[in-house]
Amino acid sequence: MQVGELFHVVHVVDDLAAAEVWYERIFSPCYMFRGHESTLDHRTASLMLIADYPAEPMAPHPGQAGQQGTIGKFRRRFGPRLHSLAWYCDSIGEGYERFRSFGARVTGDGGAVLRQAPTRGGIYTHPRDTFGMIELMEPRVGGRGGAPIGDSLGECYDPRLAGTHDASWWSTDHPLGIRRTSHVTVLVDDLERAVELYVGVLGGRTFHETRAPRAAFVAVGSDSVVELRLPAAGTAEADALAREGAMIWSTTFLVTDLSAACAHLSASGVPFSPGTHAVSIDPGQAFGARYALTAEVTPGDPREPAAS
């Protein structure tokens, strides 16, 4: 099985329209689709690209159906925040078998447990089995993969797959100067088991490790990096892990000039907190999402020209 690009990072919000306005003000995203309705998950979603980062803010439908849907249940339990990760792959059948061999429960659209490998579309892991939910999706290209043919999204809505997306625009023309997504951080309670999942099941490669906090940086698919972090006791991350369980925590963007990026945040009225090597956007202003900016390249990052 070959894992490809990061398909999307779901961001559960209360107000999709307001979240879109926020993303537009800060990041100037390129939309893949807007306001897509799902009657299976009872939610409305928009999918957008920020350089190479595919963000998918979504909100549960109003009313009882939305509250009882998978997104509504998540919102009720955890509040607005980043929700899950998804990658393209070339065989969801093999992905299903790999997840099952790892001991993970696997579901289809709407949360129905799968008893056998599907032939097309997407699969989803149970979040408690894989340190947060992971989706694998066969790309919708040339009439195959993705959602059913005839769906309102069309044959291929991802400009990366069509070869028409210019991720460099955010580096050269946008005031944030985003070079790429540095990494997505997932909080875990068993680092060795998490590495086994991301390396053994998803075919990733660990290229950097840290001791404080204990973490492994894993290159996954064609162009993404996941930091698997075991938080130190007494930290906000450790408290969140104990309260919410293992799942995605934050996304960090690599920028060309951190001072210039901070100037854009200030001019946009976005509060942020400076750190040793990065600045973090106030999640209260980001609809619960945790976003950070850094100008430091993770040691050994295989996407750097010098590492190739």
Automatic annotation (TrEMBL):
Residues 180-308 form the VOC domain. It comes from the Bacteria. InterPro entries: Glyas_Bleomycin-R_OHBP_Dase (IPR029068), Glyas_Fos-R_dOase_dom (IPR004360), MMCE/EMCE_epimerase (IPR051785), VOC_core (IPR037523). It comes from Mycobacterium paraffinicum. This is VOC domain-containing protein. One of its GO terms (molecular function) is methylmalonyl-CoA epimerase activity. Pfam families: Glyoxalase (PF00903). GO terms for biological process: L-methylmalonyl-CoA metabolic process. Keywords: Metal-binding.
